[in-house]
């Protein structure tokens, strides 16, 4: 489980160290930095697929994403990292040296480290990358791998030696299992509203297109009782049915008083979205981290309490991070569990801060020096 998330110099996140629990809710007013925190976490996930440089380029390059407030001491760069009981990881992106390359706006990876345990300290380092040079812990000594990496490649994605660097592979696969849901489509043309070719689907797709197959998979190999309970609490007396005709799966929901079940095309946006959250949170193949961005969107207020119950159930299977505008959802979660970690973001002179958290209240965190 991730216990600490750290970001430095990313948009309004000048210096942020956040403590996370099994279930964490990040909230705050519009413009307080919730989206920046979410995007920073996605950038961390992109490192495991070597997509962080491209993601930064889509945001206008490193210079466009850096903290725009008063200058800070030390080298200019964007730093991202996390720590947990087993492993910690940090990466430092910096500006490239002047050159004649057409890719002069691509950031370079100046430092990248993996350590064991919750705190970065020299004795805990397992893999240490400085510019293109990589060194790996080999018992009580270090083994150097000079020139192993390009300045734009993360060691998580590009160094794959299971014999000498098993920790890199373990951490990479763990990060690659993280799931982010923020573009679940419920519009009239949403794929989830149409019959789709279906196979066993233990993981709901990022846009929810395979919803019917994902729900059928939960009914067959997952927690069918939890799914039925989630639907019954949200829509009393209703029952889920998945039509499978010639390999094409279609969602149907029977409701009291109706002579036939409603197809996915007939469901309201809120009903369809709630069923998507059920499929994501009750996945038979839980990720190491599940991140939900504004799950309350399009939902009727009466669905927030059942949604809170679903989220709490999901948090018994995996670590869950929720980013939400909704005080009602936060209150419902508070009423459903005593294990909730609350993080409220505020703006102070353009800088995102955590309400009530001073420097001495932060989780311990140290960045690797360049």
UniProtKB/TrEMBL annotation:
Signal peptide: none annotated. Gene3D superfamilies: P-loop containing nucleotide triphosphate hydrolases (3.40.50.300). Coiled coil: none annotated. It holds the Pfam family AAA_21. Residues 23-67, 171-330 form the ATPase AAA-type core domain. Keywords: DNA damage, SOS response. The keyword DNA damage applies. It comes from the Bacteria. The keyword Cell wall biogenesis/degradation does not apply. This is AAA family ATPase.
């Amino acid at each position: 489980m991730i216990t600490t998330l750290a970001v430095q110099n990313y948009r309004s996140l000048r210096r942020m160290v956040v403590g996370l629990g099994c279930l964490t809710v990040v909230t705050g007013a519009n413009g307080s930095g919730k989206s920046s925190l979410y995007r920073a976490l996605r950038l961390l996930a992109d490192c495991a697929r070597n997509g962080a440089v491209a993601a930064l380029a889509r945001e206008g390059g490193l210079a466009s994403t850096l903290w725009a407030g008063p200058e800070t001491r030390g080298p200019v760069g964007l730093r991202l990292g996390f720590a947990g009981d087993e492993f910690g990881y940090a990466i430092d992106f910096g500006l490239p040296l002047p050159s004649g390359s057409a890719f002069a706006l691509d950031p370079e990876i100046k430092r990248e480290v993996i350590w064991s345990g919750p705190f970065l300290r020299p004795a805990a380092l397992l893999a240490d990358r400085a510019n293109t040079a990589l060194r790996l812990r080999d018992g009580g000594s270090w083994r150097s791998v000079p020139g192993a990496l390009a300045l734009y490649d993360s060691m998580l994605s590009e160094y794959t030696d299971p014999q000498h660097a098993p920790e890199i592979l373990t951490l990479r696969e763990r990060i690659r299992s993280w799931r982010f849901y923020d573009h679940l489509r419920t519009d009239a043309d949403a794929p989830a509203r149409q019959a789709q070719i279906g196979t066993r689907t233990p993981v709901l797709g990022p846009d929810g297109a395979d919803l019917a197959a994902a729900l059928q998979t939960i009914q067959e190999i997952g927690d069918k009782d939890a799914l039925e309970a989630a639907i019954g609490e949200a829509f009393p007396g209703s029952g889920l049915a998945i039509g499978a005709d010639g390999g094409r799966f279609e969602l149907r929901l029977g409701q009291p008083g109706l002579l036939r079940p409603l197809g996915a095309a007939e469901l309201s946006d809120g009903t369809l979205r709630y069923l998507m959250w059920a499929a994501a949170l009750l996945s038979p193949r839980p990720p190491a981290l599940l991140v939900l961005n504004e799950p309350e969107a399009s939902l009727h207020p009466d669905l927030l309490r059942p949604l809170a119950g679903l989220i709490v159930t999901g948090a018994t299977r995996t670590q869950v991070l929720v980013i939400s505008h909704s005080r009602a959802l936060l209150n419902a979660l508070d009423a459903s569990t005593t294990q909730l970690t609350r993080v409220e973001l505020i703006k102070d002179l353009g800088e995102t801060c955590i309400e009530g958290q001073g420097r001495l209240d932060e989780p311990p965190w140290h960045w690797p020096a360049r």
